């Protein structure tokens, strides 16, 4: 259990739905890389969470489909810093950004129709192309 993550004024992810685990980081780092667990794995129990509105949870599942594990938990990792606390803050910021993006409702698409001028231009271009090809045919001048 960790401390709650405040997303905005209306949404706060409780600490009971967040799990933090420190693991060994990959990549270069000399002797220290084998001793210190500075990489952070932050898990959010998305499948059991009741904090997010249903439509936002569906959008979050779509946005983070590559970060979901088999249990339906959202897994965020951070290993960009050498210190564990900085990686934890980075992972929490990544999760906050994802949830904020999921909370935004997409604007509905309004179907539009082509204008009269654009239809006339399209048909004129088709007529010119057709005329050009007709003029190329054999036997036109013969």
Determine the fraction of residues in helical runs and give it as a percent range.
Answer: 25-40%
Decide which structural class fits the backbone: alpha+beta
What is the spatial order of strands in the main beta sheet?
3-4-5
What CATH architecture of one domain do you see?
A: 2-Layer Sandwich
Shape: elongated
**Please, how many helices?**
3
Give the CA-CA distance, first to last residue. Answer: 89 Å
Radius of gyration over all CA atoms, rounded: 28 Å
- From N to C, what is the helix and strand string? EEEEHEHH
Name of the top-level CATH class of one domain? Alpha Beta
Low-confidence stretches: none
- CATH fold descriptor of one domain: Double Stranded RNA Binding Domain
Strand content: 5-15%
Number of strands: 5
Can you lay out the helices and strands and say which pair or pack?
Elements: E1 5-6, E2 12-13, E3 18-23, E4 39-44, H1 54-63, E5 74-78, H2 84-103, H3 116-136
Antiparallel strand pairs: 1-2, 3-4, 4-5
Helix pairs in contact: 1-2
